[in-house]
Write a structure and sequence with these properties.
The complex is a heterodimer of chains A (329) and B (325).
Chain A lengths: L9 H26 L14 H8 L7 E3 L5 H6 L4 H8 L33 H15 L5 E6 L6 H12 L4 E7 L2 E2 L2 E2 L20 E5 L3 H16 L5 E6 L17 H8 L3 H11 L5 H24 L20
Parallel strand pairs in A: 1-2, 2-3, 3-7, 6-7
Antiparallel strand pairs in A: 4-5
Helix pairs in contact in A: 1-2, 1-9, 1-10, 2-7, 4-10, 5-6
Chain B lengths: L2 E5 H15 L3 E5 L15 H5 L4 E3 L4 H13 L3 E8 L7 H8 L2 H4 L9 E6 L14 H5 L5 E3 L4 H13 L4 E3 L1 E2 L6 E5 L11 E4 L4 E5 L1 H15 L5 E5 L2 E3 L3 H11 L2 E8 L4 H13 L8 E5 L8 H7 L3 H11 L1
Parallel strand pairs in B: 2-3, 2-4, 4-5, 5-7, 5-8, 6-7, 11-12, 11-14, 14-15
Antiparallel strand pairs in B: 1-9, 6-13, 10-12
Helix pairs in contact in B: 1-7, 3-4, 8-12, 9-10
The chains are: A alpha/beta (329), B alpha/beta (325).
Chain lengths: 329, 325
């Protein structure tokens, strides 16, 4: 029992399940709003990848740092982001995390250690490594997690940052969500060597590959990597093998993949699997599961209602927040 | 106030020492800055006083260490990042333009990114096309950045101290041919506010606005012109962004003729921006067309003769003034 649940208590396990449901529901609703043309910008769905964010963040403290990606709703929610302020941001309202000035790709909550989603593929490497640098500089025991997709693994900045993180033994976890696609291209097409662990080999820190649709597998690897980082042993590159069930963005015509290739992954849905596991462990009776799902539905509907009732930012917001300082002339 | 003559290099170094002593969150990071003391010897001695924790040598990986600086700044530290030649900063553009410059705005005003990036610019050392550019204008174009380019030791020290204390990302352009120039610098602590120009020489006949090393040339040109009875007023914007337009317009209102000098290339350059701002807000003050003196629209060549020809010289400034009078 202890080993099967990775040392997590029943309330912790149920909280993880609830978080996964929140992420799923949030992105289902965000996609629905996008299809109804109620969202001005683009929405990148995290559906099918929930175990990676939740498994990783379950191993973190509130004071730890994360950087996220353009496909970032799941990471922010897993780190404690408020669905109301997130939905308001996606809908461009002043009550959103960024006053409606950032949108889906720039949600940030510095108080929760969320150093921003990022519109640049690989944009989090420098920021997360820098956050880990701050932690070491202050010796405050925090760790930083850089979430990124496998597409970002081809950006040069990863190797520059990983090199310095290894040299200085920075407390960082590079968490690669290998989700099958780099935008509109199959991931495998970009890897001359299939063995993913080679990507950490030059720097001498471990690379660990786990089933990214198994939240407890992600959690176990995350916990070990976090411990390694906090002990001062340096970075870890984690791969969660998962699958991007939806397209690159909501509305993606998906001309580059067959319906057949999605089917096996639908059978590995991380929510279905974790629910089954919890039921098997006697932790989630049918009625309790239904109750969680109903509560989550209400919570997300409230987030939408909150966002819809919120005003857009005033025109003065166009030029505010460009600088922190007011200059004399 | 006690004042002594020190070099531009020593003035910047003093600012770094003083700010690192004042604020434990300030640290230095870059290539060859610690053990070697910096490629231009600006950071010499910092390692001995502040140790490896705060004076950090990096691999040659500009995007990586600038990116780490951005992350460190977002999480509360105050990095001062040396990138050597400003030509190398192009390897770190995503970190500066997409990340540092925009984080505060994108995040709705919650973030601040208090970092200073120290590149050096300028031709004149026979370093050719990839070690001699003046790239400040690339950053002047970007909302969210502060761009500073001092021309004297006094300004360099006072502006560096303000840059380090500033909560916004600052590009601090030094000039490789100014490092050994000397000037008076007070012994006492002082700062110069960002965004304030300085009238380096008062005059009545023509206004010369000149940046960085070109301001030294402008003062030389003004001296030569004075012998012919032409009194030029010389302004150094010092901070290129935000621009102190009121000081410029204040002089122009009186003098009515202006020459703008900058070592960046002419097309889309800093001279073009100042000229446009004057047309927007000071057209009525002008009695003659604006004269621009800038680098040729060509890469900086190696051969000394060509290199000298590529960038503005005193004689070019004098010729521009004479076209106006």
């Amino acid at each position: 029992m202890e080993d099967r649940t990775a040392g997590l208590t029943p309330p912790q396990l149920l909280e993880m399940y609830r978080k996964m449901c929140v992420i799923r529901r949030f992105d289902e609703e965000a996609a629905a709003l996008s299809r109804k043309n109620l969202i001005h910008g683009v929405v990148h769905s995290y559906i099918g990848e929930e175990a990676a964010a939740v498994g990783m963040c379950a191993a973190l403290q509130p004071t730890d740092y994360i950087t996220s990606t353009h496909r970032g709703h799941g990471h922010c929610l897993a780190k404690g982001g408020d669905p109301q302020r997130m939905m308001a941001e996606i809908l461009g309202r002043v009550t959103g995390y960024c006053k409606g000035k950032g949108g889906s790709m720039h949600i940030a909550d510095l108080d929760l250690g969320i150093l921003g989603a990022n519109g640049i593929v690989g944009g989090g490497f420098g920021i997360a490594t820098g956050a880990a640098f701050t932690s070491r500089y202050r010796n405050d025991g925090r760790v930083a997690v850089c979430f990124f997709g496998d597409g970002a693994l081809h950006q040069g900045v990863f190797y520059e940052c990983a090199n310095m993180a290894a040299l200085w033994k920075l407390p960082i976890i590079y968490l690669c969500e290998y989700n099958g696609f780099a935008e509109f291209t199959h991931s495998a097409a970009n890897f001359p060597i299939a063995d993913l662990t080679t990507r950490a080999a030059p720097f001498g820190f471990p690379a660990v590959i786990v089933d990214g649709n198994d939240v407890l597998a992600v959690y176990r690897a995350a916990r070990d990597a976090v411990q390694r980082a906090r002990q001062g042993d340096g970075p870890t590159l984690l791969f969660g093998i998962t699958y991007r069930i939806e397209g690159h963005y909501v509305g993606d015509p998906l001309t580059y993949r067959t319906k057949e290739e999605v089917v096996p992954w639908q059978g590995r849905d991380p929510l279905t699997r974790f629910r089954g596991f919890l039921q098997e462990q006697g932790l989630l009776p049918e009625s309790a599961g239904q109750q969680i799902e109903a509560e989550v539905s209400t919570q997300i509907q409230e987030a939408i209602d909150f966002a819809m009732a919120s005003p857009e930012p005033g025109l003065s917001e166009l030029t505010s927040d460009v600088y922190a300082t007011t200059y004399p002339r | 106030m006690a004042t002594r003559e020190i070099s531009y290099r020593d003035a910047i170094r003093e600012a770094l020492f003083e700010e690192m002593r004042r604020d434990p969150d300030v640290f230095m990071i870059g290539e060859d800055i610690a053990r070697f003391g910096g490629s231009m010897k600006v950071t010499e001695g910092l390692l001995a006083e502040f140790g490896e924790r705060r004076v950090i040598d990096t691999p040659i990986a500009e995007e990586g260490f600038v990116g780490i600086g951005v992350g460190a700044a977002l999480t509360g530290l105050r990095p001062v990042i040396e990138v050597m030649f400003n030509d190398f900063i192009l390897l770190a553009m995503d970190q500066i333009i997409n990340q540092a410059a925009k984080a505060r705005y994108m995040f709705g005003g919650k973030a601040k990114v208090p970092l200073v990036i120290r590149p050096h610019a300028g031709a004149g050392r026979g370093m050719a096309a990839q070690h001699s550019q003046c790239l400040h204008m690339l950053f002047v174009h970007i909302p969210g950045l502060i761009v500073v380019a001092p021309s004297t030791p006094y300004d360099a020290k006072g502006l560096m101290k303000s840059a380090i204390r500033c909560d916004d990302p600052v590009l601090f352009f030094e000039n490789k041919l100014l490092y050994s120039t000397k000037g008076p610098v007070p012994e006492e602590d002082y700062t110069i506010p960002l965004g304030v120009a300085d009238v380096k020489r008062p005059g009545r006949d023509v206004l010369i606005i000149a940046t960085s090393r070109m301001n030294v040339f402008a003062l030389g040109a003004a001296q030569a012109l004075a012998k012919e009875g032409i009194e030029a007023e010389v302004i150094d914007p010092r901070t290129l962004k935000p621009l102190d337009l009121p000081t410029i317009l204040g002089s122009l209102r009186r003098i009515k003729r202006v020459v703008i000098v900058d070592e960046g290339s002419r097309t889309g350059g800093f001279t073009a921006e100042i000229a446009a701002r004057i047309m927007d807000e000071g057209f009525d003050f002008l009695d003659a067309p604006i004269q621009r003196v800038a680098a040729e629209d060509a890469p900086i060549p190696y051969c000394r003769t060509l290199e000298t020809e590529a960038i503005p010289q005193e004689r070019d400034i004098i010729a521009a003034v004479k076209r106006l009078l």
